Amino acid sequence: MLRLPPFEFRNARTAAEAVELWSSADGRAMYVAGGTDLVPNMKRRQFEPPVLVGIRRLEHGRNVEERADGGLTIGAAATLRQIADDPRFGSAYAALAEAAGQVANLQIQRVGTLGGNLCVDTRCNYYNQTFEWRKSVGFCLKKDGDICLVAPGSSKCWAISSSDSAPALMALGAQVELLGGTGPRVIDLASLYQDDGIEYLTRRPDEILTRVMLPAPKPGQVSAYTKVRRRGSFDFPILGVGASLRLEDGLIRDARVVLGAVHTHPLDVPVASELLEGQAPTLELLEAAAEAAYRRATPLDNADLVYYWRKRVTRVHVRRTLARLCRIEAASA
Questions:
Q1: How would you class 59 by CB atoms within 10 Å of its CB: exposed for 0-12, middle for 13-18, buried for 19 or more?
Q2: CA triple 168-169-174, angle to 5 deg
């Protein structure tokens, strides 16, 4: 049986109080909301914080509010199931609802939060193991070691981004609000991530992700998220495809394609967007966009199933996702 290491739990009622509680622990604390990823990692001794600051019950933390400009603001403590079931996440925002509804399983969706899924730890077959297993094969660069066991010649950790909601929200052009000791700041969601399996977030340790802001949908905008995993539930993605576009006068506008689980951070595919922009949707066009996504994907042998297959199916599922949005028959796609 895996047991948690000893820790002190401090519950916060507001985001400002949570930051104060974090600061009072001399920088050795971690924030916890749903805990669906953090707690298992603590049991495996990947994290051993002496203090946990609870942010699940922050005031207004679960609210979903409509803004005057037509956009939505989502509290970071909103649960994944809450988002998946909310009718306000219709065709324009469907990518987020589909992503939230495919995280793990229903039990975890009812506990896990949007903010937690956006900040979820990167994953690797050599890292997400028990302490005894990792000790027996030699610790890796991400925790306790000095070498990447996936790419031993690399000085960088290649653990992969495993968030479902991140590719979907990036495709929708979302922004996030962070609150820390120096006050709040708002950044594009894409700027939250960086190319490093260890320091994968630009969020400072003292900062809390408090809100997610979705821009107002444009006429004709649709979006979708496709997840590839071994089983129909519970598993982390081995590929995620977030896509958004709008159809105007028979032409594709404002297209964006974002890949998840094939790199250390969610991968935007601007070449695919450029190919689609201003064009009438045809199967040949979608094939070209899917090929651009295939070339951008860089999976390694550090997740479920073999990496060369994971790269190949990127082409297939990007094409199918775009075909669904463009209403091209699945049989031809």
A1: middle
A2: 160
For residue 252, which phi and psi values (nearest 5 degrees)? -85, 130
Cα separation, 96 vs 240, whole angstroms: 12
- pLDDT above 70 (res 310): yes
Report domain 1-58's class.
Answer: alpha beta
Nearest to 203 by CA among 61, 19, 44: 19
129-151 pLDDT tens trace: 999 999 999 999 999 999 999 99
- pTM for the predicted model, two decimal places: 0.96
Q: Looking at the predicted structure, is the pLDDT value of residue 69 above 60?
A: yes
Strand, helix or coil for residue 258: strand
CATH of domain 222-326: 3.30.390.50
For the chain, give every domain's residue range. Answer: 1-58, 222-326
User: How remote is the C-alpha of 162 from its chain's centroid?
Assistant: 6
SS (H, E, C) 55-102: CCCCCCCCCEEECCCCCEEEECCCEHHHHHHCCCCCCCCHHHHHHHCC
Task: Calculate mean pLDDT across residues 86-93.
Answer: 96
User: Is 332 a residue whose pLDDT tops 60?
Assistant: no
3-state secondary structure of 283: helix
pLDDT tens-place string over residues 155-181: 999 999 999 999 999 999 999 999 999
Contact 60, 196 (CB under 8 A): no
Query: In one letter, which amino acid is 29?
Result: A
Asked if 138 and 102 touch (Cβ cutoff 8 Å), the reply is: no
Query: What b/e string do you get for 170-185 counting C-beta neighbours within 10 Å, with b at 16 or more?
Result: bbbbbbbbbbbeeeee
Which residue from 150, 151, 127, 128 is spatially nearest to 139, judged by alpha carbons?
A: 127
